[in-house]
Amino acid sequence: MKAIDRALADAARQLDASSDTARLDAELLMAEALNIDRDRLILAPPDRDVPKRYWDMVERRKTGEPVAYITGRRAFWDIELHVGPGVLIPRPDSEVLISSAIEHFRDRDPPECILDLGTGPGTLLLAALDIWRDASGVGIDVSRRALSYASANARRLGFEKRLKLKLGDWAAGISDTFDLLLCNPPYVAEGEALGPGVREFEPDEALFAGDEGLDAYRVLAPQLPRLLRPGGMVAIEIGPDQADAVSALLARDGLQASVAHDLAGRPRAVLLTWAKSRN
């Protein structure tokens, strides 16, 4: 057995007590330590010594620190984003917002203007700009650190001339209208149980939203109708038990709500469109 294979097995055993994805974590960290992609690691592991930094990264992961913070990157949709402490880590569940937008615009003109409220490291906005190459976008966040990551990610992807990033509180002060609005707001109720390392490492302001997890939706509800163009769509992420409550809050002033589900079949997004009379 190669040294790399032995190290992966050993690391997975060490991580098993602190991670539900111990083997995956071990592989991702090894790929980072060797500066190769995970597919190559699995299909043709190199015959070489294990770098010391690998074990340093394993020790960090044993404390609960997210893999994305350790490696400094996270894949989302068809792009890779750089992330770090103080920034919400992109998650596969959020990809339903992008797939729902693709479906909405399949038989319509593509979106020209996209707004991402609470953009974080640019997750949703940059994925959308990668799909619709003639579109421009605006990303807003209350965190300067998040906007710094979003700006760096936009430059690395070559999108910096197609978007504006603004420090702000949701859509306050925004007077333009948009074809597509994307939003992954904080929606975790105070005191709700979270996965290992989430509460300890990721930013509270990107996670928690009051006793019911609905505070952000209440702020957004009166703002959304004035921002959405005819024929457009809002896609906003929700917790799996919030579909009815969020739909009731956001379906107003002519907007109608539907619910999209993630790959596990759980409600994951509320989609808002104008009633037919406005489209």
TrEMBL record:
Record flagged with keyword S-adenosyl-L-methionine: yes
Key words, A-Z: Methyltransferase, S-adenosyl-L-methionine, Transferase
CDD domains: AdoMet_MTases
Residue stretches making up the Methyltransferase domain: 114-237
InterPro entries recorded: DNA_methylase_N6_adenine_CS, HemK-like, Methyltranfer_dom, N5-glutamine_MTase, PrmC_N, RF_methyltr_PrmC, SAM-dependent_MTases_sf
Leading EC class: transferase
GO BP terms, alphabetized: methylation
Domain Release factor glutamine methyltransferase N-terminal: 7-72
PROSITE patterns reported for this sequence: N6_MTASE
EC number: 2.1.1.297
Gene3D superfamilies recorded: DNA helicase RuvA subunit, C-terminal domain (1.10.8.10), Vaccinia Virus protein VP39 (3.40.50.150)
Ligand binding (substrate): N184, P185, P186, Y187
Residues annotated for S-adenosyl-L-methionine binding in this entry: G118, T119, G120, P121, G122, D141, W170, N184
Catalytic activity: L-glutaminyl-[peptide chain release factor] + S-adenosyl-L-methionine = N(5)-methyl-L-glutaminyl-[peptide chain release factor] + S-adenosyl-L-homocysteine + H(+)
Signal peptide positions (record): none
Purpose: Methylates the class 1 translation termination release factors RF1/PrfA and RF2/PrfB on the glutamine residue of the universally conserved GGQ motif.
NCBIfam families according to UniProt: hemK_fam, RF_mod_PrmC
Protein family according to the UniProt entry: Belongs to the protein N5-glutamine methyltransferase family. PrmC subfamily.
Protein name in UniProt: Release factor glutamine methyltransferase
Organism the protein comes from: Sphingomonas lutea
Lineage: Bacteria, Pseudomonadati, Pseudomonadota, Alphaproteobacteria, Sphingomonadales
